[in-house]
Amino acid sequence: MTVLSVDDFRGDQRRVRRDAQVRRAVFLAATTSIVVSVLIVGSLLGEAWTFISQVEMSALWTDGWFPRRGMYDLRTVVVGSLLVTGVAMVVAVPLGVGAAIYLSEYADRRVRKFLKPFLEILAGIPSVVLGVFALRFISPEVVQRVIDDASQFNMLAAGIGVGILTIPLIASISEDAMRSVPDSLREASYGMGARKITTVVRVVIPAAISGLVAAFIIAVSRAIGETMVVLIAAGGTGGSLFSTDVTGPGTTLTAAIASQAVGTDQVRGEALTFQSLFFVALLLFLTTLLLNVIANRIVRRVREIY
User: Transmembrane segments in this chain: where (predicted)?
Assistant: First the structure.
């Protein structure tokens, strides 16, 4: 009878060393991402605190966002971001979810194989190209043809452009969520005499609701963080007056940062112009962080485990 020692259960030493090296490498990768995130937040906090501790509170509630003149109206950039994001979601959610339902439930394998790459190509289009498309086509050929007094630069065209940009994101995540629903649920629905559309609406979508909610929240975060489409199509370069009219020009958190910072090594103007950009960037970071936290909590609450 062979007697086994403790060393016999430790396995091959070269394999153990390789596993240890892989573990250290992936730990380093995970740690690097955390360190980068901490450095980003740290770089924002210092200048943002300088801004908020020195600015007069009355300057945060004025007629518009003109940091070079000492006017830091937060309503302008926050409401502008909400309006553009709202328009984008009105465009992207029905089209993205509709595309996902078709690809997941109706399209056969050949059609899905043909259509899926087109969605991925749309996702890969640079946002600056969509910004030009929004300015040169959506604004004059869509918005101004429907609304006569809409300006050439307007938040509605920018929102539609951002919506087009987020359609592939919603479609891809939603399709994955619906395709992960077990076929046994569909077969049970068909076995009870339900039609295809009834099965999709009453069975598949409720079962995939956690993925659909995640797709929506991620798309909102993507839309709020979009810069180039809004910068080109909304016309908020250099600042913007406060407005809730989407047919007129406006600006968002991201466009406000880009329009002030672009083209100069040092943003000039009022004493706090440079620091205001860090404050807006921190506001944007906290907004997207809050959306991600909300998305995680919603997904955990409504997730169905099969």
Answer: 25-52, 77-102, 114-135, 155-178, 199-220, 277-295
